[in-house]
Write a structure and sequence with these properties.
Layout (H helix, E strand, L loop, with lengths): L8 H26 L6 H12 L10 H12 L26 H26 L8 H10 L2 H9 L3 H17 L2 H15 L4 H8 L3 H22 L1 H16 L11 H9 L14 H20 L7 H17 L13 H9 L8 H15 L20 H18 L10
Helix pairs in contact: 1-5, 1-6, 2-3, 4-7, 5-15, 7-8, 8-10, 12-13, 13-14, 14-15, 14-17, 16-17
Length: 417
């Protein structure tokens, strides 16, 4: 399926020498941080606590009320409000609400690390990684030795769980298992509204069973959720989302996503963006939408029969788009891009790659996975607002390279033949 041209032994040794200490250091720093900081986990924990105590679920989308509940339940300053998440996300931490918030976060991080280990081990088989090729070590480094991995543990985020579902989705997709494909995609949609672009891919590929199972599961999950949370909760959630889009909330984040990129140029904000190029919110929304449509067409519209490797590239190109077009995609979302990165690198014939291309690939890897300095909102103005979005540029480059590989296969030799 993929080339797996063996990596030089010195590269494999370097991955081991740097990777294992990096994983230990990241884990240690994350757990030390979690001893006195709840970060985003406070929001998830509070939402689950509200559900288990039969509190006012419908008020979870009243941001000020929810922030007050976070302070009362966790004694933590809120860093996450629930409005961008469906009510079903509040079910995830229910098994842990019997513990105090800090212990619960520690346990959640342990669960996340175990899930990551399962993904790594199972992907070795799923991707057919040869022994002593160096790619097992490379996959480990991408998964567990990056800033996105660190941010997931520090913040108590859920994107290692989402990575697990992406792995299950890939497993079902690559093996033609309709139930595994549909149920995995439905789980991501129900928990985070994530992955809906795969429905477009499945439609182009005429995978109607996958779509049917996913949609029926989402409908059943939504019906069950309404019975648990009540219709009023979903109504409040809907109106809060509409309000967020109306007020261009996603344009003010400065996060590495497309909506924030265009918002930084064309949406005024008194604190974060007082010197926008122009205050034209509709233009930012239009450019985001046009970018989404164009990217989807370029990614999935190719009608000709693709090789198995090219189909793999297209699947993971859709995953890249799913991340960068998530309205509030942050560093922790980018752990999902460890898989597209690995697929791209394992498809290359390193003997035919020129030095400048190797340097470019290293830069892309670092932009996606490495530490990047945080610029103050007041540090850049006007057109210079594009500077802080380095991680987004790395992701866009990764997407382009994946798409280019199956649109122009003759240009890259036998990489995906």
């Amino acid at each position: 399926m993929l080339l797996y041209k063996p990596l030089p032994h010195r590269v494999t040794r370097l991955l081991l020498v740097l990777g294992i200490p990096a994983f230990v250091l990241i884990t240690y720093v994350s757990f030390q941080y979690s001893r006195n900081r709840l970060s985003d986990y406070a929001g998830y924990y509070t939402a689950s606590k509200i559900v288990t105590t039969s509190d006012s679920c419908s008020r979870m989308y009243d941001d000020e009320w929810f922030k007050g509940k976070i302070r009362n339940i966790t004694t933590s300053e809120p860093s996450l409000v629930l409005y961008v998440n469906p009510p079903t996300v509040s079910l995830v931490m229910i098994p842990l609400v019997g513990f105090d918030p800090f212990t619960a976060k520690m346990l959640w991080n342990v669960i996340s690390i175990l899930l990551l280990a399962v993904v790594w081990i199972r992907l070795i088989t799923s991707f057919g990684i040869p022994s002593r090729s160096g790619y097992k070590e490379l996959l480990f480094v991408f998964l567990a030795c990056s800033v996105p991995f660190l941010r997931n543990l520090q913040r108590g985020q859920m994107y290692i769980l989402m990575l697990f579902f992406v792995f299950l989705l890939w497993l079902g997709y690559s093996r033609g298992n309709h139930w595994l494909t549909g149920l995995s995609l439905a789980s991501m949609i129900l928990l985070k509204y994530f992955g809906w672009m795969f429905l477009l891919l499945f439609a182009v590929e005429k995978r109607w069973k996958d779509i049917g199972i996913a949609m029926i599961t989402v409908a059943m999950g939504a019906a069950m959720s309404i019975s648990v949370f009540g219709t009023e909760t979903f109504v409040h959630h809907f109106y809060r989302l509409v309000d967020a889009f109306h007020n261009s909330d996603f344009s003010h984040s400065g996060l590495p996503c497309v909506a924030a990129f265009f918002g930084s140029l064309f949406v005024f904000h008194p604190a974060w963006n007082p010197n926008a190029v122009a205050d034209v919110p509709w233009l930012a929304s239009l450019l985001t939408l046009l970018s989404l449509i164009t990217a989807c067409i370029l990614t999935i519209s190719l009608k000709k029969t693709l090789s198995r490797a090219a189909t793999t590239h297209r699947f993971f190109a859709v995953l890249v788009l799913s991340v960068i077009f998530t309205p509030l995609a942050a560093d922790h979302h980018y752990i999902l891009l460890s898989l597209p990165l690995f697929v791209l690198l394992s498809s290359l014939d390193w003997q035919q790659i020129k030095l400048w291309q190797v340097i470019g690939i290293i830069v892309v890897i670092y932009l996606i996975m490495g530490w990047l300095p945080s610029l103050s909102p007041y540090a850049v103005h006007g057109w210079k607002k594009f500077i802080p979005f380095l991680r987004l540029y790395g992701a866009i480059t990764l997407w382009f390279m994946l798409v280019y590989s199956y649109w122009m296969p003759k240009r890259i030799g036998d990489t995906i033949n």
